[in-house]
Design a protein that fits this description.
Mean pLDDT: 90
Number of strands: 7
Helix content: 25-40%
CATH superfamily of the largest domain: Gcn5-related N-acetyltransferase (GNAT)
Number of helices: 4
Strand order of the largest sheet: 1-2-3-4-5-7-6
Shape: globular
CATH architecture of the largest domain: 3-Layer(aba) Sandwich
Order of helices and strands: EHHEEEHEHEE
Low-confidence stretches: none
Radius of gyration: 15 Å
CATH topology of the largest domain: Aminopeptidase
Structural class: alpha+beta
Largest sheet: 7 strands, mixed
Number of domains: 2
Strand content: 35-45%
């Protein structure tokens, strides 16, 4: 597999203009696209926040990855994080995760929670490498295909 490297990249706010490209990223990253209307609504609600990783190409800014999160009381919930497969392993996911943590801390969150498919060994390894611990499970949490999820948690 050819791995493209686009450095440097920057982290900035995900906006409504990014939503069309977000659907493609989620498809190739095996995430479920929740629909542009839902994402637009999320981006307007104060408890939700999203960031993107972008790099300049010859023609434009190229979306490399993103996350969507929300703060609820002292908890940061990481709802989604994804990086185009050809850009994985370059620290983009780690930078996005750190940006989520920083915003969670700014919002007075004390810990971060997420769910991950039990079969997603690469994601589980990624989270374990970033100090997450297993905190529980959700039976039949995912659809298409139906699958259980691990709940993972880490202190901020």
């Amino acid at each position: 597999m050819l791995v493209k490297q686009l450095n440097p990249f920057e982290i900035s706010d995900l906006t409504a203009e990014d939503l069309l490209e977000l659907e493609d990223l989620e498809c190739v990253s095996h995430l479920s696209f929740w629909g542009a209307e839902n994402y637009s609504r999320f981006l307007q609600q104060p408890e939700y926040f999203a960031r993107k990783a972008v790099a300049r190409t010859a023609a434009r800014m190229r979306l490399l990855g993103f996350f969507l999160a929300r703060s609820v009381l002292e908890n940061l919930e990481l709802l989604k994080i994804g990086v185009y497969p050809q850009f994985q392993g370059q620290g983009i996911g780690a930078c996005l995760l750190e940006a989520a943590f920083a915003e969670g801390i700014r919002r007075n969150c004390l810990r971060c929670f997420l769910e991950v498919r039990k079969s997603n060994a690469a994601a589980i390894r990624f989270y374990l490498n970033h100090e997450f611990k297993m905190a529980g499970e959700r039976i039949n949490y995912y659809t298409e295909p139906v699958e259980d999820a691990w709940i993972m948690e880490r202190m901020l």
